[in-house]
Amino acid sequence: MSMRRILIYVAVPAICFGIMTVASTPASQDKLPKKYTEAITTKSGEKIGFEMVLIGGGSFLMGSPAGQAGRKDDEGPQHEVCLKPFYLCTTETTIELFLAYYEETVSAEKDPFAAEEEEKKTEQGSEADVDAITGPTPVYGELTMGYGKKHPGMGMTWHNAMTFCKWLSKKSGKQYRLPTEAEWEYACRAGSTSVFGFGDDPKQLKDYAWYEETADFETNEVTRKKPNAWGLYDMLGNVREWVYDFYSSAAYKEAAEKKPAINPKGPKTGTVHVARGGDYNSSAEELRCAVRSFEEKWWRSGDPQIPKSKWWLPEMDFIGIRVARTIETCTQK
């Protein structure tokens, strides 16, 4: 089958091989806004906004072809994936927004046993309000690491990132979450089969990404480079972005057995999670759309605690998040 026939990007409502359907509700997907701005009111009354863009569902080839320069074994085999529509933030979550979450939920003053019980309740889907969400312990060091409020938030563990999404969902009344690895790559490619999403020429990266050739060894404010074809900034470089999936080097082999893989969420169990997109210190080769990274032991080397914190990766300014949102009107048979 040719690439032209395999790679299909369709506008919402998305129908993938007759499997995806749209609920017949007044808010049908063809009437969903292409983008919207979410506004969060902080504890101090300040308004913080961020923009979400609708990513139309469809199918694509995930992973890299065998002949691609720099390809690693865990990027293959390429396999067809079918996704339903979702929203994705146009930028990485900023320090400004992450700091609001931290200040509102930090658990330093809470009884540790009570905090643990509260966390169990929120993980089980209770209707506790925002104040009941057990947030991180105090960060070791300085949360901003000296960066400005429009730089990407950083240094959080995957667990912390997931708790941030719970807080954001409670604040907004919408279902915010981490994107799956498949959703992330689909959005990064933005309808393209090229190496970088915008093309194959690494010389063009300077227009789209903060990386080893442009970043001067530090993160930069979001939206300072060109967005990709779907209006998403910094999908490559600046900070790596946590996604939902556990990491497995064999994940694609398992997914390839399903033709296509429908809304995959990765392995059911694992020890570390996937991060995507490369960072400010990455080489051009490490910024390819298909590149996968995952938490390594040295990411916790800045944490003097024993045991290591489940909330923080101290001094690790290369890892952040970008939030997605589930479209509640989309159903699956």
Report on this structure:
The protein has one domain (about 5-330): paralog of FGE (formylglycine-generating enzyme) (Alpha-Beta Complex). The chain contains seven helices and 15 strands. It has helices at about 5, 95-105, 110-125, 160-170, 180-190, 205-210, 250-255; strands at about 10, 20, 35-40, 45-55, 60, 80-85, 85-90, 175, 240-245, 260, 275, 290-295, 320, 325, 330. About 20% of the residues lie in helices and about 20% in strands. With about 325 residues, it is an alpha+beta fold. The protein is globular and about 50 Å long.
The H-and-E topology, N to C, reads as HEEEEEEEHHHEHHEHEEEEEE
CATH A-level architecture = Alpha-Beta Complex
Strand order of the largest sheet: 3-4-7-14-8
The total strand number stands at 15
* DSSP helical segment count: 7
Which CATH class is shown?
Answer: Alpha Beta
The percent range for strand residues is 15-25%
Number of domains: 1
Structural class estimated from helices and strands:
alpha+beta
The CATH superfamily bears the name paralog of FGE (formylglycine-generating enzyme)
Give the overall shape: globular
Integer-rounded radius of gyration: 19 Å
The rounded distance between the terminal residues' Cα atoms is: 27 Å
Largest sheet descriptor: 5 strands, antiparallel
Residue-averaged pLDDT, rounded? 87
Low-confidence stretches: 1-15, 17-27, 110-115, 124-128
